[in-house]
Amino acid sequence: MIHLSLIGIGTGNPDHITLAGVRALREAELILLPRKGEARSDLVDLRRLLCRSLLDEAAHSRVVEFDLPRRDGRDDYLGAVDDWHAAIAETWREQMTQRLPEGGRVAMLIWGDPSLYDSSLRIAARLKGAGPEQESGMALEVDVVPGITSLQVLTAEHCIPLNALAEPVQVTTGRRLRERGWPGDAASVAVMLDAGGAFQSLAPEGLHIWWGAYLGMDKQCLIAGPLAEVGPAIVERRAALRECHGWIMDVYLLARRPLLK
């Protein structure tokens, strides 16, 4: 039996990991750190920093890095993601069974929280053989240690609530915002996984935006204001940051109504 702990670690600030996360990390017999390529080396560097900060020297031998498969860039997005998840699941399986052939406790450090636009739980379900089309899976028990999400850090850094008073919030992706526009009757829309500037598909009049990139990191960048005024500046700044660092993670909140009234 493999016991897998998916530990939410927040958005890059070592102070964001909870005491429960620290305990799960210290109890693990194997800690797997995914590498996503040179352009995103900052992400594994921060995971390494967490392990060095929270584990004693003897435990460092339990930390193992592995290369994450890359997603196919074909137009069939959902099909490409499904194949990608299958390849990641097989990589996880290989690492766990080779390094803990008799079973044991494994920890993985998950950016943000495993519940919000993260696929670690779906990949773990593949390992367990969940679903009618899955092959017989491995003996796997999964638990989740919640973490601070990028939306929480965004609203904290801008000192705003997520919702207008008594109003709903819609959380969506940049792809969906482009395809479908403003969702339903939401007064606030939080946008994640935007390849860049999906808000430009909206009529900016009456909209306010709070944007953040590299939240929780030393390179954090924030911009806020009426969308008509600051939208072009966000697009320009985002492109410059991506060019400088080779990658970018950003998120933003749009609102039609004041959030502090």
Automatic annotation (TrEMBL):
Keywords for the protein's UniProt record, in alphabetical order: Cobalamin biosynthesis, Methyltransferase, S-adenosyl-L-methionine, Transferase
Superkingdom assignment: Bacteria
Pathway named in the protein's UniProt entry: Cofactor biosynthesis; adenosylcobalamin biosynthesis
Pfam family, one: TP_methylase
Single Gene Ontology BP annotation: cobalamin biosynthetic process
Its EC number(s): 2.1.1.152
Principal EC category: transferase
Annotated ranges, domain Tetrapyrrole methylase: 4-230
CDD domains, per database record: Precorrin-6A-synthase (cd11643)
SUPFAM superfamilies to which the protein is assigned, alphabetical: Tetrapyrrole methylase (SSF53790)
GO molecular function: precorrin-6A synthase (deacetylating) activity
Protein name: Precorrin-6A synthase
Protein source organism: Halomonas organivorans
